[in-house]
Amino acid sequence: MTQLYVIAGYLAVLITLGAFASRLSRGTSKDYLLASHSIGPVLLLLSVFGTTMTAFALVGSTGESFSRGVGVYGMLASSSGIIHSLCFFVLGVKLWQFGHKYGYRTQVQFFRDRLESDRIGLVLFPVLVALVIPYLLIGVMASGIFINVVTQGRVVDGEVQGATFAEGTFPAFFEDGSLNAETGERDGFAGATGSKGGLPRHIASLVICTVVLGYVFFGGMRGTAWANGFQTSVFMVLGVVMFYLLTQQLGGEDSFVANLKKLSASIPDIKRIREGNISPTKFFTYMLVPLSVGMFPHLFQHWLTAKRASTFKLSVVMHPIFIMIVWAPCVLMGAWAAGALVNVPPPVAADPNKVLAFMVRSTGSDLLAGLLTAGVLAAIMSSLDSQFLCLGTMFTTDVAQHYAGKDRFTDTQVTWIARAFIVAIVAVTYTLSLFEPGAVFALGVWCFSGFASLFPLCFAALYWRGLTKWGAYASVLTTIAVWFYLLDASDYARDEAYAIPVPLGGATYEVMPVVPMFLASTFALVVVSLLTPKPSEATLAKFFPVKN
């Protein structure tokens, strides 16, 4: 029960932070949605980093490393560190300049102006929302699983011992886990997916959704940025503490370095080589996935909160270092869990999403497990809040105000429309999470692959005068068509190792699904743009001013 009290205390702090931020609000929709462009370099670094560090980065990477080896770090973390910073510099600064100059709040506003096309919003808005939903599901699902695992008891001879909650505390629907495909019955209280006396994962997810909704609803972007800054500090500090303690406990030697060597030696050979059980071409093509940050709508909104262009400098420099501090321990702990020094129970091994929570539980201290869980939840919630707020902003700006008329609503009404849509999105996301749609890592890769395939559109809009609205339509529609086709081929992300076979020179090479999506999107954008009329000279002069 101790760890539950610690988690509850942490969530109470977040609610308090959101309430305090709301008292500092200037009472305008601009302040609620963009914090009045007042965020400085340190808070921008912490809030942007917290936004990009999701359950995918922590829970997903640990589970993937457990399954496939340390090559996961090279695939995503090392390339993410460089590519994210490049996107901040190449895209973020220019988008901030246009947003600040022309008053944009969303990506759709920018593309409507840049492409001289009102209807691009009808295409882009549903696509962006559809891609954000899986992103939200990752966080909601992972937070519930994590809290359940760290609060559950141990199963000995079919009986649950040391449980936080006795059997029957919650309705059987929450305690008895998933339906077994063979028997048609649920696993049961002590079964593989049963709650085992922990806070049932669906209830835990509901609590997290409610807390995030609370401080976003009242605090808006200012509350979100503060909460993200606080949570980023928490999960980075506690992450380092967790890594040190687990290293000392699992290694059993006197020195930290000796324990690192002992644990590294325990990793199975197949998971110690650079690529693990990942083919070289699949490893290399994974590096397109981090380009997704260039089209994340919530990141676009965070970029607009910066006080000035120079505010980005700290984020560009420190982001790769922060990624290394967070991802390296997560990947190592996953690989250690696959080694001889850690005995992972079969139910946990069968569900890699539970590996990080199991490692946290391995500390043997309820107080420490509670603190470390708070750190993981901090990372998860710091991305959920931005995504919820972003969707509220998009609906308010791109749909309600755009089609009803800018002067149709008062400033107060605009804020309440955003809040109402945020509540609706939270409800939809939580309901979808009850259907347990797939593994955290696989869902994340599909979501990010879709955004990465829209990267050429954003880049061309900023740097290519020849981009036309028809080229943009072709790019977006091609992306979503190829994305759905390949997602269906992967059995809707259930085939977690899905790859595209490419026969070449008598051999067959595997590439990630993002490759055909990215190439098809780029091809459609370039070819159609070359064949269709360009934007007016006035628009080109607006976005490509001649330097004297």
Automatic annotation (TrEMBL):
- Cellular compartment(s): Cell membrane
List, alphabetically, the GO terms of the cellular component aspect. Answer: plasma membrane
| Keyword DNA-binding recorded | no
For membrane topology, the record states: Multi-pass membrane protein
Q: Which keywords does the record carry?
A: Cell membrane, Ion transport, Membrane, Sodium, Sodium transport, Symport, Transmembrane, Transmembrane helix, Transport
Q: Name one GO biological process term.
A: proline transport
Catalysis performed (reactions): L-proline(in) + Na(+)(in) = L-proline(out) + Na(+)(out)
Q: Which InterPro entries match?
A: Na/Glc_symporter_sf, Na/solute_symporter, Sodium:Solute_Symporter
Tell me the GO molecular function terms.
Answer: L-proline transmembrane transporter activity; proline:sodium symporter activity
**One Pfam family matching this protein:** SSF
Annotated membrane-spanning segments are 6-25, 32-59, 71-96, 122-147, 199-218, 225-246, 283-300, 321-344, 364-384, 416-435, 441-463, 470-487, 511-532
What does the record list as coiled-coil region(s)? none
Q: Which PANTHER family match?
A: SODIUM/PROLINE SYMPORTER-RELATED, SODIUM_PROLINE SYMPORTER
Q: Which family does it belong to?
A: Belongs to the sodium:solute symporter (SSF) (TC 2.A.21) family.
Q: Give the protein's recorded name.
A: Sodium/proline symporter
Q: Which organism is it from?
A: Botrimarina mediterranea
Q: Which gene encodes it?
A: putP
